[in-house]
Amino acid sequence: MSLKNISLTLLVAILGILASKGIIRSSRPSLLKQLIELGSTTLSSQPIIAPIIPYIIEGHHHQHHNRHHSKGNKVNICDDFPPDFPPPDTNTTSIFCVDRNGCCNFTTVQAAVDAVANFSQKRTILWINSGIYYEKVNVPITKPNITFQGQGYTSTAIVWNDTANSSGGTFYSGSVQVFSNNFIAKNISFMNVAPIPGPGDKGAQAVAIRISGDQAAFWGCGFFGAQDTLHDDIGRHYFKECYIQGSIDFIFGNGRSLYENCQLISMANPVAPGQRVINGAVTAHGRTSKDENTGFAFVNCSLGGTGRIWLGRAWRPFSRVVFAYTAMTDIIAPEGWNDFNDPTRDQTVFYGEYNCVGSGANMALRAPYVQRLNNAQAAPFLNMSFIEGDQWLLPFV
Ligand SMILES: *[C@@H]1O[C@H](CO)[C@@H](O)[C@H](O)[C@H]1NC(C)=O
Ligand SMILES: *[C@@H]1O[C@H](CO)[C@@H](O)[C@H](O)[C@H]1NC(C)=O
Ligand SMILES: *[C@@H]1O[C@H](CO)[C@@H](O)[C@H](O)[C@H]1NC(C)=O
Ligand SMILES: *[C@@H]1O[C@H](CO)[C@@H](O)[C@H](O)[C@H]1NC(C)=O
Ligand SMILES: *[C@@H]1O[C@H](CO)[C@@H](O)[C@H](O)[C@H]1NC(C)=O
Ligand SMILES: *[C@@H]1O[C@H](CO)[C@@H](O)[C@H](O)[C@H]1NC(C)=O
Ligand SMILES: *[C@@H]1O[C@H](CO)[C@@H](O)[C@H](O)[C@H]1NC(C)=O
Ligand SMILES: *[C@@H]1O[C@H](CO)[C@@H](O)[C@H](O)[C@H]1NC(C)=O
Ligand SMILES: *[C@@H]1O[C@H](CO)[C@@H](O)[C@H](O)[C@H]1NC(C)=O
């Protein structure tokens, strides 16, 4: 079995296993290379794989794509592809079809993006079939109104492995980079599989997606990486029912964003009880002045995984983050937040918590600048009015 035939569910499982056994951390070769080697040796039989998946991807929906195995040798790989697809254009929408096996017009996501007309006012839906797309994808500022429609975030993924070092800086390391407005993604994962940085490593940050356009929405998406997974850079953004994995500053940037019903999973190294080390942070929000209307609001999310981490650190002096109605496990350090070792930021950050639950949400030992928000203080962050969603956010269907 080659890497190209591994399903995304399996890739996620492998990533989790390698991380949990410390294999990724302890070796220097790239993960992609390790996966290729593993793929050609140990992973050739189904029975090994099956029991592993539920352990790693707790609470995920499992889809098994056996069409290449179960129907015998003579079956055409495109046989179960939707007939007459894509449907013809309408006045408001074009659908471009991407399938890496060549069953429709495009075999790469980038080729489909390239074919979208510049400055189209129509929405172009890139329907992306199940599979892992190994490519770095750039959606330029000239291409607004693009939708990436995958088949489930454990079924369709765009995967690359740039790092800060390999790409000229963290900001350019994204496997996918979106510079246009009105971008939508549904049921797809964005992954960076560069080696996980060890303690003290420089230049190993690896972004899964950078979102630098205004009015972007993500529904049922996955974001996988370690340090700096999700670069929520600039603009108003909405995330619903997404799975976001990382270690240090894994949601960072200066966006104004609402995260609803998302799972936030830390994959920082496990920390033994009693050890005082902190080895991760969920957010590093980058608001630079009190006049900027930016911030991250998390509502009805869950926060768990491994390590001992902060909810956020003050990457810029006016960093603004709110957690509301969110369940947190004991991986959250009691002080909760960090001022980036700059006590002057204690006066300017806005870090609030509201009606959170779980042992990580105990505020008794929180840093003094953290706010226990009252109803009125919390209200602006609790629904899509925070991102002016009534002006632009379309319903899921
Ligand atoms: C990405 O993976 C390829 C294939 O294994 C490897 O040659 C390359 O060095 C990796 N890049 C980084 C930055 O790790
Ligand atoms: C779509 O455009 C065509 C040609 O401009 C026009 O005849 C038709 O009425 C339009 N349909 C809708 C639903 O707007
Ligand atoms: C996709 O392929 C169909 C025929 O299979 C063709 O009519 C259509 O123009 C193609 N679309 C694009 C965007 O290339
Ligand atoms: C979009 O604009 C770029 C830059 O001018 C050009 O290279 C490209 O061909 C255009 N794409 C389309 C599909 O028109
Ligand atoms: C397309 O993008 C433009 C510019 O971002 C925006 O004004 C317009 O409302 C969008 N159209 C649709 C159909 O989303
Ligand atoms: C990144 O580049 C710097 C300077 O060349 C080097 O010291 C560092 O080890 C590199 N980091 C990684 C993770 O390769
Ligand atoms: C797509 O995402 C939506 C929103 O999270 C979810 O309700 C739906 O089940 C997902 N569909 C698939 C095929 O994963
Ligand atoms: C909170 O999130 C959970 C899990 O995503 C979901 O099942 C539940 O419906 C959400 N509650 C509200 C009020 O959105
Ligand atoms: C959203 O929150 C704002 C600010 O508290 C409030 O005025 C508005 O009524 C709320 N909207 C909805 C749909 O709940």
From TrEMBL:
It holds the Pfam family Pectinesterase. Residues 98-390 form the Pectinesterase catalytic domain. The keyword Hydrolase applies. GO terms for molecular function: pectinesterase activity. One of its GO terms (biological process) is cell wall modification. Keywords: Aspartyl esterase, Cell wall, Cell wall biogenesis/degradation, Glycoprotein, Hydrolase, Secreted, Signal. InterPro entries: Pectin_lyas_fold (IPR012334), Pectin_lyase_fold/virulence (IPR011050), Pectinesterase_Asp_AS (IPR033131), Pectinesterase_cat (IPR000070). PROSITE patterns: PECTINESTERASE_2. Transmembrane segments: none annotated. Its EC number is 3.1.1.11. Residues 1-19 form the signal peptide. It comes from the Eukaryota. The keyword Glycoprotein applies. It is found in: Secreted, Cell wall. The active site is at D249. Pathway: Glycan metabolism; pectin degradation; 2-dehydro-3-deoxy-D-gluconate from pectin: step 1/5. It catalyses: [(1->4)-alpha-D-galacturonosyl methyl ester](n) + n H2O = [(1->4)-alpha-D-galacturonosyl](n) + n methanol + n H(+). Acts in the modification of cell walls via demethylesterification of cell wall pectin. Belongs to the pectinesterase family. This is Pectinesterase. It comes from Erythroxylum novogranatense.
